[in-house]
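2024-03-11 09:14:02 INFO worker-7 job=invfold-0412 stage=load source=structure_tokens
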């Protein structure tokens, strides 16, 4: 670690749960972020600031004026730019030592599997169930940890899945019906800082997985009612009828 890195990450190094060894693990780690909107913005910024060595940003969309109420990695000058390009510029300004790869398209099939296989953790900042289901299936197939979040109106949730662990549920254990439909914030609205709260929790869980500290939220669902500022913590179990992971075998 260089003197500049020791200074930049000094507050991490001071933490006994991280220290120099943990920061070295972060510097060598790779994270895949799917979606650079309201959730992906704070996630990407905190992971870059924390020194995660390589971030791969995936989003096919462009920045719109209505995004700027909550998507804090972008700014007014970013309007009409690809979100991944806008985010890459912001992250480079925040921490030029982090490698940023961009994928300005949606991923599916073999392309999605390839990206999931090459990363240490996947962070789900998607805004629709179809993408979340595909991402979950890819993580289950490859055994890659998945940190999932969602937020709409004034409610949010975070859950962590570690498919390499036999006791871990997957996202489809939580939502077994593939016909479920979400409510887009473009129709029902969303409180701006709610995305920051949920995204920050996702970033925290991602850092914990990457440097091996603390206790992961695997097998738990954290729910936030921001209107009342009430948190609820629910236990999740693997479903024996899950269409994705029920028949998965471990060596």
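2024-03-11 09:14:09 INFO worker-7 stage=emit residues=251
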């Amino acid at each position: 670690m260089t003197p500049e890195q020791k200074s930049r990450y000094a507050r991490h190094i001071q933490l006994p749960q991280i220290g120099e060894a943990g920061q070295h693990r972060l510097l060598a780690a790779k994270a895949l972020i799917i979606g650079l909107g309201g959730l992906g913005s704070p996630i990407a910024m905190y992971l870059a600031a924390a020194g995660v060595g390589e971030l791969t940003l995936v989003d096919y969309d462009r920045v719109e004026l209505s995004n700027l109420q909550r998507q804090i990695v972008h700014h007014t000058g970013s309007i009409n730019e690809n979100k991944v390009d806008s985010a890459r510029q912001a992250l480079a300004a925040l921490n030029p030592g982090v490698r940023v790869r961009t994928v300005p398209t949606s991923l599916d099939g073999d392309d999605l599997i390839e990206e999931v296989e090459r990363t240490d953790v996947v962070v789900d900042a998607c805004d629709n169930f179809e993408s979340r289901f595909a991402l979950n299936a890819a993580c289950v197939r490859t055994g890659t940890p998945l940190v999932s979040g969602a937020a709409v109106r004034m409610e949010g949730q975070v859950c962590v899945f570690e498919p390499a662990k036999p006791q871990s549920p997957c996202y489809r254990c939580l939502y077994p019906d593939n016909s479920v439909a979400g409510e887009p914030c473009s129709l029902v609205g969303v409180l701006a800082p709610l995305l920051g709260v949920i995204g920050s929790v996702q970033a925290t869980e991602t850092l914990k997985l990457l440097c091996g500290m603390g206790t992961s939220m695997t097998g738990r669902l954290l729910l936030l009612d921001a209107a009342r500022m009430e948190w609820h913590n629910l236990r999740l179990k693997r479903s024996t009828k899950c269409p994705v992971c029920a028949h998965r075998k471990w060596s």
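2024-03-11 09:14:09 INFO worker-7 stage=report msg="The first strand starts at residue 30 and ends at 34."
2024-03-11 09:14:10 INFO worker-7 job finished
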